[in-house]
Design a protein that fits this description.
Structural class: alpha/beta
CATH class: Alpha Beta
CATH architecture: Alpha-Beta Barrel
Number of domains: 1
Number of helices: 8
Distance between the termini: 44 Å
Radius of gyration: 19 Å
CATH topology: TIM Barrel
CATH superfamily: Metal-dependent hydrolases
Shape: globular
Length: 226
Amino acid sequence: MERDIGLVRETGCQYHVCHISTKESVALLRRAKAEGLPVTCETAPHYLTLCEDDLRDEGRFKMNPPLRSAADRKALIAGLLDGTIDAIATDHAPHKDEEKKTTFDEAPAGIVGLETAWPLLYAHLVQTGRLPLAVLIEKMSAGPRRILGREDLALAAGQRADITVIDPNAQSLVNPADFISKGRNTPLAGWKLAGLPVMTIVQGQVVMLNGKVGEGPAAQPVAHVG
């Protein structure tokens, strides 16, 4: 990464770093941004909630990059707070059960995360006071839009609603058997979730309602915002 940032300094090219997981990466990117270099980055929910102390000799704990130290996790949260880290991405990587139900060394790298990302971070960062709600919203919506150059997708009057509605009081536990994704490989089984999504609207259509995808009012249009 230090080499790449040097190239950015020489060329002025845009540089994005995926899945940062160490305090050294946070420090390098913080300095690069202070220089005004065009760099962006993201991290993933598992690096913000787990650390190497949580590892077990099971395939569901294997990911790339691997889990780091508690100090690295603390640095990532600090990077979210000060704007060094632009976004949170799931790095959703489903595998067949037989591939992951083996030892750590034998399993392929990657875990699922789409269905747990928001409620996991809401429960373990927002509700614990380590991250303001506004910051979590920013890192999972506006931040990714800016990286992709899609400010046109922002919620605005007259635009079709692409939004997820959250119930801040709704709670559950991670149960892989309930996942809609065919992938079940998660190290977070049994973890608390909060702030559950109760409705998702895409292009003005309800596509998820109370955990049901493509059912109920899914064919019904939603009024334009504003």
